[in-house]
Amino acid sequence: xxxxxxxxxxxxxxWLSLTMSKKAMIPIQRSYRQQQQFLAxxxxxxxxxxxxxxxxxxxxxxxxxxxFTSYTKEVIVDMKEEVGRMSRMVHHLLLLAxxxxxxxxFEIVAFDLVPRxxxxxxxxxxxxxxxxxxxxxxxxxxxxxxxxxxxxxxxxYILLDNAIKYTPKHGNVxxxxxxxxxxxxxxIQDTGxxxxxxxxxxxxxxxxxxxxxxxxxxxxxxxGLSIAKWIVEAHHGSIEVESVVNxxxxxxxxxxxxx
Length: 259
Ligand code: ADP
What we know:
This protein is an alpha+beta fold. 57% of the residues lie in helices and 17% in strands. It has helices spanning 2-64, 70-100, 113-122, 125-130, 149-165, 197-200, 212-217, 224-234; strands spanning 109-112, 134-138, 144-147, 172-179, 183-190, 238-244, 248-256. The strands form two sheets. A five-stranded mixed sheet has the order 2-4-5-7-6. It is globular and about 90 Å long. The chain crosses the membrane at residues 1-18.
């Protein structure tokens, strides 16, 4: 009898814990979905006012720019930079919210990476020049790959933007594309501030920034590398970083050729 009571008690306990956890799961899942939807909606709604602000600043500058004092000009430049920063952040948030809900479609096409890469690197020449950073690209003659061109561009932009952002004046940034028989790789090397070993594992996490004050001064939110990782993984690749503090970092992305 005692054994029977014990078995019934045990079954009842298991049944109770299973139904309780099931019940607890539903609100958690629902609240997670609601949170995702909220993030996607909020980011989407924020895009319109930001683009209106951007256009309005252009109009103000165009119509009255010549009458501005140097102080007003500075204020306008700062405002445009801040609006740009917020737009990028909102764009990244929206993308992450969409990636979570699985609603981002990748358009995989075959293309030659080399002319594209030349173009993408060239887009950073002005900003590199401003910091007197030498920007070089070492590319093969051609490299036929399969991938989503816009997302690949975004990946390169995130890595190059970081390399230049975290490299002090007069540094070097190298972009190296290498092809082997089974895989190809992209390495972005810089002679920047480097990443301490304890942070290296976490820099791909959302909102993670090394030395928060340093990154905020550079206008960052800690979302770039999590998007980079998501793009790489969606192309079945891998991303890793090697770094020496105060000497520089190298981000390497490796891909096998997609069928
Ligand atoms: P952020 O928008 O802050 O640059 P990321 O996700 O792109 O966000 O990067 C996360 C953190 O990793 C950055 O805040 C920065 O501290 C560090 N980091 C990224 N790239 C580099 C780099 N090339 N050199 C030094 N630190 C870097």
